[in-house]
Design brief:
about 230 residues; Laminin; three-stranded antiparallel beta sheet; 4 helices; Growth_fac_rcpt_cys_sf
Length: about 230
Amino acid sequence: MLKGQCGYGWIGYDIYCYKLEAQELPWNNADVECENKGGNLASITNRWENNFIAHLIAKDFNACIANPCQHGRCVNKDGGYKCICSFGWTGQNCQLDINECTRNPCQHGRCVNNDGGYKCTCSLGWTGRNCQQDINECTRNPCQHGRCVNNDGGYKCTCSPGWTEQNCHQAGGFISGWWEYGEHRYKLFTDEVTWDQANTRCKKQGANLASINSREENVFIADLIKNGLQT
């Protein structure tokens, strides 16, 4: 019996290699013969090894009888066996757990390696086995007084005039004749004037004519005009 890669004439079992010699020798002579071949006389340590050696001697050897494949299927072969490992396992006897997290399977979350697999703990707004599916947050109507726009991993509310905060749930956007939206305040005048007159009026108020920079801001101003809000 020797440990390591099995050469010609040796039969592998677990992590050791065995060789059956037909010649009968005294124990001392047999021990020397084994040492000359780089091994030792077999020392049986469990019943599976005992069964293996018994079948080896009987020339009716089936290496799979000892169930050497810890997490897989055993296929008997001439001179040994081969393990076909289950998903998540590797090694000669399928005894080594593969760390699935090294390939970063969780697209938007944290990976936890388990025996024979892994589990993803998804970040907020994501779902699926690999946290690859965006949750449409707008389906639960989070924007109480406004329009919901779904984003990757979250959502954004475009509040109707007079409402503020993340979910458009806070009233009080109207302050001293001005409507708050984002970082700015807006004031609506209903009388028609030229651009220069309108610009002058805004300057006197310490402000500027509205310059629309986003779709959300455009929706806010459109709602402001539609509802006819004014000071």
